[in-house]
Write a structure and sequence with these properties.
12 strands, Serine Threonine Protein Phosphatase 5, Tetratricopeptide repeat, globular, alpha/beta, 3 domains
């Protein structure tokens, strides 16, 4: 089995420990049964000379689980950056965005719908979406999705952009035409993109499957593809990995966004709660996108004023989340702590408090994640954050175990 694992790592960057050796073994055994091989050595010989079988094995081990608006925070951040930074600086240019890996298209199509809902014309942007899985791309090309692609509580976007069909829900061609799909191995030497650089790159939950060497290779390629003023969006555990490579945080809590080194410090942080009447975005983050009411003529704030004493704010996690999104980490932490004092047990409160402490550089983040997992052992985000901190502290074995748990949970979500 080792030669197969080594080849998977060398070609697609897959670290066997990230998905679990048993998963790879199970995929290999299934392929052997389908082809009638009884000995592993015979299958390996066949695999060495069959590009088609190699692709079949890759299809069996890559993780393609996703759904629409899976992570609302980065999408909300992306839309705000486009409206408040990119569009004012580019009067006529077309925005270039790369989504890799794109799986069956839910992420890039979510980005299209979010831009359209924000009033950005379709002719102002073009999204290129890349994945190694031919099967996933075939589903994306058809644009027909079943119930697993729609999760959460708010399906208003489905009413606007999908039509019911016998097989599920068919995506509006106007949305589909905004994305160009391409099959490719991001780590291969001959990997080519349509554009030389991109204003935004979404590369979420890919780096966690790579070993350190392949991760550096991937981040170097991303750095070459990202425009000087561009923004990279990665997964929660991956942002520190990008920073270690030389990127800088974009200072947008909960979005896990980065800029190229030297650029972030020179730019003014985006104001996430607009003070200008009528300037509020069409959507806001509340676990999913929902319409946001415009400010009244009186100038009343949509959220409690961050400069109010924290004691005057009710201990509500949504308030804490929004304060964290504005960069008011101290106030957000105080609300989380008050929430815990009042309600005693809340995995989500401990998770949010851990994120805030981590973002502000204060100690205690790992204890918060540990408490969240004590209350809710399958808390996906806490597992990922805990795994990263353990990895950073040199506890690689425990980190791998937690990552494996998180991946199994993520596949069931």
């Amino acid at each position: 089995m080792k030669p197969i694992k080594d080849r998977l790592r060398e070609t697609i960057g897959l670290d066997a420990a990230s998905v679990g050796s048993t998963m790879i073994q199970r995929a290999v055994r299934q392929r052997m049964r389908s082809l009638g091989f009884k000995q592993l050595v015979d299958y390996w010989r066949f695999l060495e000379h069959s590009r088609a079988e190699w692709q079949e094995l890759v299809e069996s081990v890559v993780v393609t689980e996703t759904w629409f608006f899976r992570d609302p925070e980065p999408i909300a951040a992306f839309v705000r950056l486009v409206r408040e930074e990119w569009l004012p600086a580019h009067a006529t240019a077309q925005l270039r965005l790369l989504s890799v890996p794109c799986s069956s298209g839910e992420e890039p199509f979510s980005l299209v719908m979010a831009l359209l809902d924000a009033g950005v014309p379709a002719e102002r942007f073009q999204i290129e979406a890349v994945d190694i899985s031919a099967r996933a791309l075939a589903r994306a090309g058809r644009g027909v999705y079943g119930k697993n692609s729609f999760r959460g509580k708010d399906f208003s976007f489905r009413d606007r952009y999908f039509q019911p069909s016998e097989e599920g829900f068919m995506l509006d061609p106007a949305v589909r035409n905004c994305v160009q799909f391409c099959q490719g191995n991001f780590l291969s030497e001959d990997f080519q993109t349509r554009e030389p650089s991109y204003d935004f790159i979404f590369c979420r939950n890919l780096l966690i499957y790579f070993d350190p060497l392949m991760r550096r290779k991937a981040l170097a390629k991303i750095e070459r593809l990202l425009a000087p003023t561009g923004v990279l969006f990665v997964g929660p555990v991956e942002q520190p990995l990008a920073i270690e490579h030389g990127f800088e945080t974009a200072k947008i809590p909960m979005a896990f966004a980065c800029r190229r080194a030297g650029h972030g410090a020179r730019r003014q942080r985006v104001a996430w709660m607009s003070k200008r009447s009528g300037a509020a975005p069409k959507h806001q983050l509340e676990g999913h996108f929902q319409p946001q009411h415009q400010p009244q003529a009186s100038g009343r704030r949509l959220m409690p004023s961050p400069d109010k004493p924290s004691s005057s704010l009710r201990p509500d996690l949504e308030t804490a989340r929004r304060l964290a999104d504005t960069g008011h980490l101290k106030e957000a932490a105080e609300i989380c702590e008050a929430h815990l004092r009042e309600r005693r047990v809340s995995a989500q409160a401990y998770y949010l408090l851990g994120l805030v402490r981590d973002a502000s550089g204060e100690p205690g983040a790992i204890d918060c994640y540990r408490k969240a997992l004590y209350l809710e052992p399958n808390h996906y985000e806490s597992l990922l954050q805990m795994a990263f901190l353990l990895q950073k502290n040199g506890e690689a074995a425990r980190a791998r175990a937690l990552k494996s748990r998180a991946q199994r949970i993520g596949m069931k979500m």
